[in-house]
Amino acid sequence: MLIDIRRVSKIYNEGKESEVRALDDVSLRIDYGECTTILGHSGSGKSTLMNILGCLDIPTYGDYYLAGEAVSEIPPSKLSSIRNRQIGFIFQGFNLIPGLTAYENVELPLIYRGMPRGERHDLCVQSLAEVGLEKRMDHRPTELSGGQQQRVAIARALAAKPPIIMADEPTGNLDSKAGADIMKKLISMNDNGSTVILITHDLHLAKAAKRIITISDGKIISDEPVSEDERRAVLEGDAV
Amino acid sequence: MTIFRTTKMAFKSILHNKMRSILTMLGIIIGVWSVITLVSVIQGVQRQTMEAYSRMGSNIINAYWGTYGSGEKDITDDFFDECASLKKYILGVTSTNSSNITAKYKSKTLSRSRVYMASDTFDICMGTNLASGRSIGYADIKNKVKVCVLGSYPAKEFFGLENPIGKQIRLGGVYYTVIGVYESQYNNSEWSTDNIIAVPRTCQRSLGVSNGNNGDFNIKCKDKESLDMAMFLLNTWLTQHLPQNNSYHSVYSNQQWQEQEQEALDMFTLVVAGIAGISLLVGGIGIMNIMLVSVAERTREIGIRLSIGAKRKDIITQFLIEASVISACGGVIGIVLGAVTSAMLSSAFFQAVYLPSVFIIILAFAFSVALGVFFGFYPANKASKMQPVDALRNN
Ligand SMILES: Nc1ncnc2c1ncn2[C@@H]1O[C@H](COP(=O)(O)OP(=O)(O)O)[C@@H](O)[C@H]1O
Ligand SMILES: [Mg+2]
């Protein structure tokens, strides 16, 4: 089992008046090679869950096993390495570094992993070309539209073809055409063997995945596979 | 993350906030500037005194005395005899008293030359070297022969390119034959020991010079041990031969003098080091302050870096390099200012350009960088310890 969380809760401002139970006793297993969407209304706890799955945050209660290993026991430097090499994380709010160009943003995780310059360059150029930004490589985030910034963020997450891809509402800021392109890209990564976990609040897009987990008020309220017919209908339909 | 890249990025961010960076560097700049300047000046003073002492020569005793009353016996000749009897320790003795006597050659007049009543060991006692001719000898003194040896200044002024040897100059109206010329010690300066004229000490009376009953002598000793012995013996002799109640005397060596001067300089250096330390400390705190601000401003950036796989040491390195680049820049500016200031001060006071030594420059630079690393560590460490999500949430 790739991802196994057991009775995880995340409580913000615990004990204070402003206490929020963003995740409430959630258990969930995702296997290698799955393509899953997490569906839910705004504020239901999707991002909170994804941040924990992506090793960016720690649960208040409960355990997280990643490939059989308890994440709470993994030393910080190894955790950095997991974030760097195993997980491609696409954030809800792009999270590009303002002072760096599109190219440099995509390059940064590859630098941290110690990849040689030539190899880095090839991967960066290829990854940016795949999201249609080969002509925008030397632009800074402020010189790019929201959609373009999102595509830089995607190029950064996918450049090294990580085995796990987590995307937090990657199509949220895009028009339906651009959103559809990104969905296709994620699906093709899954076809090539990556495990894909995707957050959306769009039921239609959610059906492009093989499994839909619905969460509401920090609880999983349903967890169902998508039928091949439904999937094909979405993937071949106009919206995607 | 390579050091080179990070350094480049640090420079970028410094240039981006020019005003802030300069203000941050100011503490370091002033600290390094003052240290470099003061150390150069101290070294200049040291070099000057060393040169002066080494010109005079080593193993020299200076003895002087005087009496307050009148009609006391003049002990000068007895003193010479005493020195002669101590020739186991003493190589020579000469009076260092000089008088201002107008010197003339044909129509030329020099009124500022110092005339020395020389013994036959004048040269080894005063550190003068002959350029040509001969020095005043035993026979000149014994027979009160009217001869003189010129310093390089009067020789040049009177004779130019003419050969001075054998020519006759007038001292206070009396003719003296030039028998030798000294080498220049101070570029033929009128105000230095280049402007001297040495005559046999026995000619004193005919020149109308009187020292009263006091004296000032240089005594050249064989070596350090002889010097200590001679100092003791001469001091004892003077105590015995001067009237007890109304006289003074002193016997010391330039070695002692040099040591005392060195002590004073060392003390001064210590004070300077203290001041410099304080100003560099203030500079370091300034760096720490600005790095804390920088970390706070860039919390989100740190969050992004951590979430895409930066290790703690990557973040620490980034901020440490930034801090040390700032302090190194401050150090370099301080060194340049210090070098310019010490060149200006030394040319004003010593008529020579003394630049800070390479050792001091390297030390100042290394210290500046170390300061940046030291005071940058706390902010850098703080930055690296953030949880990625907490840092990302920051706006
Ligand atoms: N840092 C935080 N401090 C306090 N409450 C938070 C924090 N982050 C999220 N929340 C709350 O937790 C709940 C879940 O948030 P989130 O996981 O972002 O939802 P979603 O991504 O599904 O919109 C929301 O009610 C939100 O207000
Ligand atoms: Mg969200």
The percent range for helix content of chain A is 25-40%
Q: Strand share of the residues of chain B? A: 15-25%
Low-confidence stretches of chain A: none
**What does the largest sheet of chain B look like?**
9 strands, mixed
Major β-sheet profile of chain A: 6 strands, mixed
Give the helix/strand class of chain A: alpha/beta
Ligands bound, unique: adenosine-5'-diphosphate, magnesium ion
User: Low-confidence parts of chain B lasting 5 or more residues at pLDDT below 50?
Assistant: none
Spatial arrangement of strands, main beta sheet of chain A: 6-7-8-3-9-10
Rg calculated over all Cα atoms of chain B:
33 Å
Radius of gyration of chain A: 18 Å
Q: State the helix count of chain A.
A: 8
Structural class of chain B: alpha+beta
Q: How far is it from the N-terminal to the C-terminal residue of chain B, by CA?
A: 25 Å
Number of extended strands of chain A: 10
Characterization of the model:
The complex is a heterodimer of chains A (240) and B (395). By secondary structure, chain A is of the alpha/beta class. Chain A is built from eight helices and ten strands. Chain A has a domain at 94-161. Chain A has helices at 46-53, 76-85, 102-112, 117-130, 146-158, 176-191, 203-206, 228-236; strands at 3-12, 20-30, 35-39, 61-66, 69-70, 87-90, 164-168, 195-200, 211-216, 219-225. In chain A, helix 3 (102-112) crosses helix 4 (117-130), helix 3 runs parallel beside helix 5 (146-158) and helix 4 (117-130) crosses helix 5 (146-158). The radius of gyration of chain A is 18 Å and the shape is globular. The two termini of chain A are 30 Å apart. In chain B, helix 2 runs antiparallel to helix 9 (254-297) and helix 2 crosses helix 11 (312-349). Adenosine-5'-diphosphate is lined by residues 12-13, 20, 22, 40, 42-48 of chain A.
